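Q: I'm writing up a methods section and want to include an example of the input and output format. Could you take the sequence below and give the corresponding predicted structure tokens, formatted cleanly so I can copy it straight into the document?
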Amino acid sequence: MERYAVKALILLSKKPYTLYQMSKEISNDGPVSHGTLMPMIRRLLQQGFIKFETSGREKIYTLTEKGVKFVESLSEIEQQLKQNLISRAMGDAFFYLNLLSKDDTSAALNAAISIMLPAIIAEVEYAFKMIMKGHMDEIKRIANEIRETYGEINDEQSLS
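A: Here is the clean output for your methods example:
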């Protein structure tokens, strides 16, 4: 799923939006053009993630049950990712982190997350897009590549 589609679904999980409102909110770089947004909206409608109601001349978009479940699954993935990041990557390092002040621990963890999370999210978005297109082999190749680069993390491999 393309970058703007995921952002649109997350926005719509908070409240209903018109196309114009979404175009203003969806990008940090200013409004997204109608020509970019409309094909993505059509795909989300066709795939059953969103629906709309007409109010005057405007269409008000909301999530369908499928869209709600998708956003909930993203939230669950985010929580699992954070938990796994902390528990698996830190391993025995928790002992040393407990020696640090809470501010130092929090700052180190926040720095690691803020640096790595965008790349991880991009990988997950790409994986989702490939799965939706039926390219499971591509996802397995990427996962193997990551494992080869970083290895399997176990209790013997920690930050300590």
